[in-house]
Amino acid sequence: MVMQRKLRLRSRSDFTRVYKTGSSFANSQFVVYWLKRPETERFRAGVSVSRKLGGAVVRNRIRRVVKELIRLNADKIADRTDFIVIVRRPALGMKTRDLERSLLHVLRKAGLLKGGKPAGGSGRRNGSGSGAGPETQPRREV
What we know:
Number of helices: 3
Order of helices and strands: HEEEHEH
Oligomer: single chain
């Protein structure tokens, strides 16, 4: 089954708005950017996979898996939010169950699960701030 059209971020302007004005949080497999949108009823999600991670087949497969995980966990995700999930290289070799656990972890830390609050307050950028351990710090490529 496919993620419903109304639950997808599709336009370039939507992605740009979330990147520029939203907050972010990361773990080693995913980065999530989000923006609260009181005028929307449900959440809307986008998935981004860099060309650095592989060819079109690899990128589209991981994108489909992540979208399916979002669809399966839609009842747990907070409404009135736009968010973008960026896939990182370590996610490529993981099993679906582990990907789901990691995705829910980053969404929980970002405060995007129903009843959850952002770790260390909202508005943090890239997981920095007090209490952010090595698991939540973005990796730097050398």
